[in-house]
Amino acid sequence: MTVLETERLFLRRFTPDDAEFILTLLNEPSFLRYIGDKQVRNLEDARQYILNGPVASYERNDFGLYLVELREPHTPIGMCGLIKREELPDPDIGFAFLPDFWNKGFAFEAAAVVLQDAGDRLRLQRLLAITSQDNDASIKLLQRLGFRFEQEIKLSPDRERVKLFAYRIDM
Questions:
Q1: pTM above 0.90, yes or no
Q2: Cα gap 90→42, rounded to integer Å
Q3: CATH class label, 2-125
């Protein structure tokens, strides 16, 4: 079920049938380096990640991470959407794409339509984003989208410091 679309992309809700793609994406070296190890090692782990993460978020919040696929030929290339973390006061945007699809404008295109949906449908007024300290590509993308750096934070005492960005949605 397509939730959002752009000229080149469909964003749709994840289903357990997307486990193979999730297994690949979450084990990409760039994902492990910049986002972290989600301990997804096989198809069953991937199905559980989908059910306990995105699917649970759709039910709880009416938003979550969406699968991003090319309109033609419906090739999965990444994920993008909103996450509500207990550690943060507002939802944050998240995105990850397979390296073959970097530097082609897909992440910007997907994130822009997610931001529009956050204001139009969800009526949110503020979104956050977090990045690792050295994730320059994501930082540049967030700034291009209109996010502003606020501060460095730790989501929990045992985790590394991350950069926190904020975005105001004009109603």
A1: yes
A2: 32
A3: alpha beta
For 4-28, the pLDDT digits (tens) are 999 999 999 999 999 999 999 999 9
The neighbouring-strand residues paired with 92 are: 83, 128
DSSP state of 154: -
Distance of CA 122 to the CA centre of its chain: 16
C-alpha pair distances (Å), 149 with each of 70, 109, 128, 133? 31, 21, 10, 12
* Residue whose pair of structure tokens reads 């469909």 in the numeric block: 10
Length of the chain: 171
* 38, 24 Cβ separation under 8 angstroms: no
Q: Give, rounded to a whole angstrom, the gap between the first and last alpha carbons of the chain.
A: 27
Confidence of residue 105 (pLDDT cuts 50, 70, 90): very high
Residue that is written with structure tokens 């730790």 in the block: 154
Give yes or no for a cis peptide into 73 (omega within 30° of 0). Answer: yes
Q: What tens digit of pLDDT does each residue of 41-54 get?
A: 999 999 999 999 99
24: enclosing H helix or E strand: helix 19-26
